[in-house]
Each structure stands twice: as C-alpha cells, then as structure tokens.
Amino acid sequence: MIFFENFAVALRALRTNLMRSSLTMLGIVIATAGVIAVVSIVQGMQSMIVGQLQDIGTTLISVFPQNPQQGPGIVAKQVKLTWQDGEAILEQVPGIKEITPVIGGSTQLKYRDRQHTPQMVLGSFGNWPEVFNHAVGSGRFFSSFDVQRRRKVAVIGLKVVEELRLGQNPIGKEILVGNLRATVVGIMEERGQNLGQNQDDFVFLPFDTALALFGRSAGDQIQIRLQTESAEVVDQVVDGIKGVLRQRHSIGEDEDDDFVVFKQDQLISVFSQILGGITAVIGSIAAIALLVGGIGIMNIMLVSVTERTREIGVRKAVGARRQDILIQFLIEAVVLCLIGGLIGVALGYAAGYAMVALIPGDLPPPHVPVLWIIISFAFVTLIGVVFGIYPAGRAAKLDPIDALRYE
Amino acid sequence: MALIELSDIHKVYDMGEIEVRALNGVDLTIAQGEYLSIMGASGSGKSTLMNLLGCLDTPSQGSYVLNGVAVQELSDEELAGIRNKEIGFVFQTFNLLSRTSALANVELPLIYAGTRRAQRKKRAREVLEIVGLGDRVDHSPNELSGGQRQRVAIARALVNDPSILLADEPTGNLDSKTSEEIIELFDALHNAGNTVILVTHEGDIAAHTQRQIILRDGKVVEDRRQGQAA
Predict the structure, then answer these.
(1) Would B207 be classed as within a structural domain?
(2) Angle at A138 between CA A135 and CA A141, to 5 degrees
(3) How far is CA A353 from the centre of its chain?
C-alpha cells in the first residue's frame, strides 16, 4: 500500500524535475543503448551463422589436410590428403551415406565479351547436392558418368548467371572456365550469403574435370566432405576416419594428425565461442559505463536529498517513518535507472538497425535475445539500488527538527 | 484523565564544550479540549517544549504521557506513528510541498497512515471544506495567498483527527487582518472540541486562549487561566 504510494510520489518528483531527471538518466541510456546495439548485431550474426550451419545439416563431416606442429630441426613433409584416402574411408568406416572429394580454386570465367571471377570454382562428385543439402534450381547436376568421363560440363550459381549475363535460358550455353570450355547443364537454387561467402557465386565442375583444370597436383591436397546416415553415428564416423587416416598416413602413436576432422556442431561452437567472447568484452565495457552512470545518479540523488531537506522534514513531521523516506528515494533512483534502461534498449535496438543499414555489406538483421533485455533491466535496477541506497539512507536518517529548520 | 502529562522534563543539548539546558524541570498537565498558548522570549525553551510535545524529540530526563502512552520510551518508528495520528502541526512558514496541489498536501498524513486512496481524497476534501478552501483543492501553494496556505496547513494538521493541534507562530508570516482570520479559525476549531496549543510571542494572539503558559530559562514561570477568551 505505502509502497505504491511511494512509487507515485517518486514518479511525481521525477516529473517535477524533468530536465534534471533526463540529464541524470543520460549515462544509463547511453550505456544501455551501446550494449544493446552491439549485442543486437553480434547476436544477429550468431543466429545467422548457427542457422546456416544447421541448414547444411548436423550430419556433415569435413576432412581437411593440416600441417602438424613442426618442432625445430624436423623437416616438414608434404601433407597429403587424396581421394584414395576418401575411398579407404568409404570402404572401412560404416555409417557413411554420401561422400565426395572437394577441390577449389579461383579462376576467371568468360562468356563472349564478359568476364567474371566467381568466389570459388569447385570440383566434386555428382552427389554434392546431397552432401550439402543444396538443390539444383533448374537443369541438372552432373552425374557420376560426367565425372568418370571428365565431361566438360558446369553447374553454376545465380550470381554467375547474372554477372555473365547468360540471359533467361543459360542451360546449354558454353562458358570458358579458365582455359576450359564447359557447357552449362544446371543452375543451383538461390542460397544467399553463408559464412561471408556468396553461395550463389560458385561454379561446380566434375571432380576429374576440375583436376584437369587445376593440375594433377591439386589432387594431393583435397578436402573430403561426407554425410553420415544419422546424427547418432557422427562421433563414431569421426573416430573411424581418424583411425583410417592415421594408419594410411603412417602416423606414430606420439605424432600429431596431419589432417583435421570437423563436425558441423564443432564449427557452430567455434563461431559461438568467438562471438560469445566479443559479447563478453562488450558486456564488461558496458558494465563500466553503467557504473559511471550509476555514480552520476548517486551524485544527483545527493543533491536532490539536500534540496528537499525541508520536504523530508515535513514528511517526517506528519508521520513518515525512516523506511518510508528510504523507499521513496530508493524508488526514485531505481525508476530513473529503469526509465534510462528502457530508453536505452529502444535506442540501442534502433541504433542496431541503423548500423546494419548503414554499414555496407550483407549484415544480418539485428537480434536481441529476451535474456539480454532481462539482464540489462536487472543490471540497471541493481545500479539504481546500489547507488541510490546511500543518498536514500541519508535522507531517511535526517533529524526532523533539523530538516524542518533547514533553509 | 489528562491528555498530556509532563513531569520534571529536562532537555539538555550537548554542544561539545558547553551543555545547553533548554528545559529545566517542566511540569505541565493539559486536559482534553483545552485552548492554550505557550509564550516566552527567544531562548526561553518554548521551541524545545513544542518539539517535545509534538514528539519530534524526546526529553533527556522526565516523563511525558500523551493519551496514556509514555512517549519518552518510544522508538523512532513509534514516534512517527504518534506524530501521524496524535499530533497536527502548523508551522510559521506553512511547510507545504510546493508544486503539489492543496488536496495532495492535505492527503499526506493519510498516506502514511495507510488510508485507502478514495477514502483519503474524500477526507482531504472534507477538511479543506472545514477550513474554507473547498473551492481551491486543485491549486498548488504558489497559487494561494499566505492565509490560504496556512489554511491548507491547518487542514493537513486536522486530517487525521489528532489529539492535539500544535501551532508554532502560526501567524508569524501573515499580515494582521489575515492573522485575525487564522486565529478565528483556531477559535472555531477549539469550539468544535479540538485541543489547541499555540506557541507564540504575541500577547494579542495568546489573549484568544483560555490558558497562557509563560516560559523563562527552561522553566514554567507563569500558568494563567482566563475565564473566557477575549
């Protein structure tokens, strides 16, 4: 009962000194807005990346060659990862649904007088669409027959169609990939940005055709991508791959792998960790900013208590207890912080959108998890209590006779 | 039974080097419904006595029984409760909350008494009606004249139906005509059954009351009763 009355009294006092209240809140507003703006962008990125990685599927496994850590005096050996390794994996490790080698390079494309260098020219098997959950939009993907025969066919992304201005019906047209003349047989479905790459700016060639383009040695360091039959067997398959490769590469007990095996959820957690780190750094800067804002609040509350000494005296004379005065001033501080926080969250959200709109490039829409909003409000409330308690305590302890006499 | 019983009240202020004996053995009994004034030169201890009577302060020594309650034994919290329910203060400088309507000012003691909102508004209006400000409830103190402000303060003092109405130089900041009106209001409140104590140094104000207590050097030197107010 009295609590709500004190709440109303606090609000009225803040409204009466609108200008001062707003200036006091500014520190809290800016700090909160800053956090929310940056968090909204980082979290937007995170949810995009995680979403995209999950799109590809959690049963995707990637194998890359990797130079082991070299100690001094040890001669580096050429690390190899070949399709023979891939075949051995397919043969010896159970639970694999689809597997394909991948090689990639950057090569210029030509069509008539137009030129375009796509993000990537990739060589793979005909099962790429299954391995990467990426369907063909029109035409067809190349077949294993195309791969065996080293047919000069290409499947391209929409961006490539656009850049080379292949027109309404690109299928059947012949484009120049490096010095290789290839016929377009299919166009991939639109996919947009993924992990900073435009997925529509790709050219796919049959693996053996790509080898001919990039040179035989490209076959010594390939990537292997595979889909397991189910999510449950992913860990087993990863272990199996490691076993097969260590044996084939004659890696001793105490030697490091010369390859890495990545599960999709590992990638997710790596990205989450990086973005989580960024968020934590911003969070601590924000905490400092809020602290400074809190000190501002304390300062103004102390001024306010002094200015309103007589009011406190009157209230005490007509029956206000210490706790009534304490709660009144504490609520004032907390309400200041909460309103500041509210404005800050709104401004931060707006700033997040503005930043995304103004920064060139394809940033994902900002996203603030409810948890962060709750944390922000909890934190500003805490700031209000921590920095409000001292001035409020001073007000509550005033002697009514002195307070009434105060000029 | 007496409403107020002070016996052998001492109040000593410790000002570091020296002790100031503001009250030095005051005995005073006030009955329900009395109309009295406390007079004395400055430094005579009348402010201290008023603070004690109003439960803003406690005596260093002696006992104060108000309405059967031994006040000198109460805690700060309990004193706040007594001030809220038993005492109605009227100050020389009005002490209203500025930028707050007359009604809200009068409501203040009811808020701390925990009265419900609707009840509170109704009661505050009633009391403002009694002091003759029924048409000014929404005005803030800055929009009122000195006399009207003091009426608001008196309404605030009355709103909780206190045992004592305690006024400290209530006409000190008012011109003589307005002073007369305010004193007549106190007369009327006394006639309605309230116990009224005026602290003043003006003889013609004190002349309205039935009993005059004169303090000097922290002691009651005279306790005069008149048959009827002038």
Answers:
(1) yes
(2) 55
(3) 16
Grade residue A356 by pLDDT with cuts at 50, 70 and 90: confident
Cα separations in angstroms, A306 against A302, A396, B146: 6, 12, 25
Distances (CA, A) of A127 to A86, A222, A338, A362, B81: 14, 16, 56, 29, 85
Strands B164-168 and B195-199: parallel
Question: Phi-psi category of A139—alpha, beta or left, where left has phi over 0 and alpha has psi -120 to 50?
Answer: left
Nearest to A93 by CA among A247, A237, A251: A237
The C-alpha atoms of residue A315 and residue A354 are separated, in whole angstroms, by 48
The runs of H, that is alpha helices, within A158-263 are 158-164, 207-214, 234-248
Q: In this predicted model, which residue has the larger pLDDT, A368 or A167?
A: A167
A17-70 pLDDT tens trace = 888 888 888 888 988 888 888 888 887 777 777 777 776 677 889 999 987 655
Domain range enclosing B124: 33-61+80-225
Tell whether A405 lies on the interface with B, counting CB pairs under 8 A. Answer: no
Task: Return d(Cα A351, Cα A34) in angstroms, integer.
Answer: 8
Q: Is B140 on the interface with A (CB under 8 A)?
A: no
B55 close to B86: Cβ distance less than 8 angstroms: yes
**What is the structure's pLDDT at B226?**
75
Contact between B111 and A12 using a beta-carbon 8 Å cutoff: no
Q: How many residues does chain B have?
A: 230
- Chain B within 8 Å of A18 (Cβ-Cβ)? no
Domain-by-domain residue ranges, chain A?
2-53+269-405, 67-257
Residue B69 falls inside a structural domain: no
pLDDT at residue number B14: 83
Number of domains in chain B: 1
Predicted confidence at residue A77, as pLDDT, reads 63
Q: Strands A180-188, A153-156: parallel, antiparallel or unpaired by DSSP?
A: parallel
Q: Residue B47 corresponds to which tokens in the numbers above?
A: 């402010």
Q: Provide the pLDDT for residue A71.
A: 58
CB contact under 8 A, B89 and A317: yes
Size of the A and B interface in Cβ pairs below 8 Å: 60
Dihedral sign for Cα atoms in the order B181, B184, B190, B193:
negative
Percent of chain A with pLDDT over 70: 94
**Mean pLDDT taken over chain B:** 91
Give the ipTM of the model, two decimals please.
0.92
Residues A165-222: tens digit of each pLDDT: 988 889 999 999 998 999 999 999 988 766 667 788 999 999 999 998 998 888 888 9
Query: Which residues on adjacent β-strands are paired with residue B35?
Result: B196
Nearest C-alpha neighbor of A135 from the set A84, A182, A199: A199
Q: Which of B91, B96, B114 sits opposite A1 (nearest CB)?
A: B114
For the question of whether the overall pTM of this predicted structure is more than 0.90, the answer is no
For A19, half-sphere exposure in the C-beta direction (CA atoms, 13 angstrom radius) is 0
Determine the Cα–Cα distance for residues B23 and B218; give it in Å rounded to an integer. Answer: 4
d(CA A260, CA A262): 6
Q: Are A41 and A366 in contact (CB under 8 A)?
A: yes
**Cβ of B108 and A400 within 8 Å?**
no
The shortest C-alpha distance from B202 to chain A (Å) reads 21
d(CA B201, CA B181): 18
B114 touches chain A (CB under 8 A): yes
When the pLDDT of each residue in chain A is averaged and rounded to a whole number, the result is: 86
